[in-house]
Amino acid sequence: MFEAVLLTVITAATPLLIAAIGELVVERSGVLNLGVEGMMIMGAVVGFAVANQTGSGALGVVAAIAAGMAMSALFGFLVLALVTNQVATGLALTILGIGFSGLIGEAFIGVPGLKLPELYIPGLSEIPFFGPVLFQQDAIVYLGFALVALVAYGLFRTRLGLVLRAVGDNHGSAHALGYSVIRIRFAAILFGGACAGLAGAYLSLAYTPQWVENMSAGRGWIALALVVFASWLPLRVVIGAYLFGAVTVLNLHAQAFEFDLSSPFLSGLPGFVTGAIEIATTSQFLSSLPYLATILVLVLISANRRLTLVNTPACLGKPFVPDR
């Protein structure tokens, strides 16, 4: 039972982890991208469509990454070249992605999906409990952890990471030192879009191998919250992603559990208590648990001013226009 729950948590957390680690890199460069949801849903529909037409899950994943990068390139052009408002542009991109994905995916509603195969490691996959959990996942799960390790090492152990963080903290000084702020930020945006597209591919090719309109279901917004939750530190993103994944799984299991309000124990409780239990066990309320948890976490983090500012890129959301 515990093994099945843990496997479900992993599948629920993986798209959040991948999308959040990409957004972390974008924000470390000083750009706030609220279009993650739109990039993710475009990756999901394009990945599903290509996999369905070609019969290849690998091509579907590549196409999803390309779709995410195409959306992010549009975002990058608007906010970096045309210096549009980052918040408004990101929101517009999300609306565009949701609407355009519905148009593309209309022909694929109800079509059987192609599920990515699980990797089987002889010997290790047969270990009780640990085998299926650690050594029998699909490639995207392992790729998600590899991305976290790569980003953590790259940001804090390489010159490129130092330059990226410098651009996010003080783009004026970085420009004065001869670094191309626009190019560095555009590369970071493309990386974030690729991660969002990959997260979308996981949704439609592994998590639920089918296409359903708006199947990202707000995961892009949760990924944005995860970056703040993690204080812009890659390893904390893993903790946050699995925490929110566990909340999502709790929601699914709670919906399957029914309270009998007519039982002698519950019938003896005050009316307002049984009423609260009845509301709390409705499917609508339980479905909102991941988003309520997101709001609660953001409120708690915002209350701690020092924690909020310790790793926040100083130039986050601020446009850059080179003076020479």
From TrEMBL:
The main place the protein resides is: membrane
Q: Where are the transmembrane segments?
A: 6-26, 31-51, 57-83, 90-111, 139-156, 186-208, 220-249, 285-303
Give the membrane topology, semicolon-separated if more than one: Multi-pass membrane protein
Among InterPro entries, the record links this protein to: ABC_transp_permease (IPR001851)
Keywords, ordered alphabetically: Cell membrane, Membrane, Transmembrane, Transmembrane helix
Its subcellular locations are: Cell membrane
- Is the keyword Transmembrane helix assigned to this protein? yes
For whether the record's keyword set contains Membrane, the answer is yes
Under PANTHER family, the record lists: ABC TRANSPORTER PERMEASE PROTEIN, SUGAR ABC TRANSPORTER INTEGRAL MEMBRANE PROTEIN-RELATED
The name this protein carries in UniProt is ABC transporter permease
Q: Which organism is it from?
A: Roseibium sediminicola
